[in-house]
Specification:
globular; 5-stranded antiparallel beta sheet; alpha+beta
């Protein structure tokens, strides 16, 4: 087991360099779907934006999505393997429902993000398991702290963000958001949504149509997690084009 190949056959064995190769491969699986997802936290809103790709012409486009509601007021965008994404979103729903049944109130955003990260981390410890090949960007409104944005990766890390990126264009999009969010600007709802869409367009250096992107939001005025309609997305795309 002196070669790298020997170490990457077992998820529970560290290489001499202190690496878990199978976990690193899970991160590569996230990028293998050739998609990019973005989350932005504003003063009174959070938004997640991603591409909507329909891989086959015979597919019903309305059944293809990377955005999933977890509870009425919490939702996420998933980047990576579709089957893993659905399984992880469904586990989040189960955990949230069980928490509300046991405690009598909705599971806070940071608690559910931490719980899902704990589950992901367990999948890196056992030889009979494999990590999820997906990254979750979760948004919601906290009763005390307001808009919340968390990112949960295959290694089991859960961290709050002002702007989060997952997928193939992570480096360039992260640099774009760092520049736009420098100084912690207090973004309005409109600015938050348009920054998310602009960041995705900048990553691919193209102008998307309304049916080529998915946008979901939560706001302090209306904490319900909802997907924007094509008409609403087109309104923001027009505003971005006129501004530029």
């Amino acid at each position: 087991m002196s070669s790298v190949t020997g170490y990457d056959r077992h998820i529970t064995i560290f290489s001499p360099a202190g690496r878990l190769h199978q976990v690193e491969y899970a991160f590569k699986a996230v990028n293998s779907e050739l998609n990019t997802s973005i989350g932005v936290r504003g003063k009174d809103a959070c938004v997640v934006v991603t591409q909507k790709k329909v891989p086959q012409k015979l597919l019903d486009a309305s059944t293809v999505t990377n955005i999933y509601p977890i509870t009425r007021n919490i939702g996420c965008v998933m980047t990576g393997r579709t089957a893993d994404s659905r399984a992880m979103a469904q586990r989040g729903r189960y955990e949230a429902a069980e928490f509300k049944y046991n405690n009598g109130y909705d599971m806070p955003v940071h608690v559910i993000a931490g719980r899902l990260a704990d589950i992901n981390q367990v999948y890196t410890q056992h030889a009979y398991m494999r990590p999820f090949g997906t990254t979750m960007i979760m948004i919601g409104i906290d009763d005390e702290t307001g808009p919340q944005l968390y990112k949960i990766d295959p290694a089991g890390t859960s961290v709050g963000y002002k702007g989060a990126v997952a997928g193939e264009k992570t480096p360039v999009t992260t640099n774009f958001l760092e520049k736009k969010l420098k100084g912690d600007p207090e973004l309005s709802y409109e600015e938050t949504v348009q920054l998310g869409i602009t960041a995705l367009q900048a990553a691919y250096n193209t102008d998307f149509k309304a049916n080529e992107v998915e946008v979901a939001v939560v706001t302090t005025a209306d904490p319900t997690f909802r997907l924007l309609t094509e008409a609403e997305v087109d309104h923001h795309l027009t505003a971005i084009a006129e501004r530029d």
